[in-house]
Amino acid sequence: MNPFAKRLKVLVPMALIGVLALTSCAADTTDAGADGAARTITIATSNDAPFSFTDATTGELSGIDGEMFLAIAEQQGWNVEVFVTDFNTLIPALVADKADVIVDAMYITDARKEQINFTDPWYMQGEGLLVPAGSTVEDRDDVAGLVLGAQTGTVFTDLIDTLGGSETQYFDSQAALITAVENGQIDAAFTDSAVLAYSLVQKPNPKIKLVSPYEAYFPGTIGAGLRMEDTELLADINAGLADLKATPQYLEILQKYGLGEDNLSE
């Protein structure tokens, strides 16, 4: 299933799977334990690119959320360990003390706020509009009368049915959807902006483009999740996040994975 769609779902308890640990290179001990050692924070992630994942080459924590948390951890003097589990078991893992914080492009929703606390917003993310490189389409209003596409099983199939296209087509994978735009089979496609942007960073394609700026129909606010009682850790992460947002590194991390100023949060 498309990562955007699954991040909109309310989580239900399931058996936890998989554990992976690594340590960041934070050097100082501004948040040291009683023995003077640097504090270790365990993050929970489903290991999804481009959000929070372990780089297959370096073994290091990577991704939009992953690198933002590493920047916060370095500023706070924390070591970082990673607990890997399915996306829909992230909240149960947190509540069961398997991890201290969820770092995995989790949408802040009212339903989730009944179970856990959220940090201040990390960034914004919604669907992207993909068109041929020479297209004059600038927003959703411009796609009426065009051939539209989306990936089967995602919320975007419902969206394109409302936009007045001359025809709608559905594809089993994002790769097939991208190819359909590239070869002119469809005129515009709607899919998860972060995943699509990252795929274009990994494999640039001069025949297609993401419309930008673009105001998402399904905007989502991303945050990190913590247990209700961990108010001190919440305050520390928010302080580190505020410091990160005040530096060029914040936008640089977004741009590294194909996002940009449209995705900034205050």
UniProtKB/TrEMBL annotation:
Signal peptide: 1-26
Pfam families for the chain: SBP_bac_3 (PF00497)
Ranges where the Solute-binding protein family 3/N-terminal domain occurs: 40-261
InterPro entries in the record: Solute-binding_3/MltF_N
Keyword rRNA processing part of the UniProt annotation: no
SMART domains the UniProt entry points to: PBPb
Protein name stated in the entry: Amino acid ABC transporter substrate-binding protein
Biological classification of the source: Bacteria, Bacillati, Actinomycetota, Actinomycetes, Micrococcales
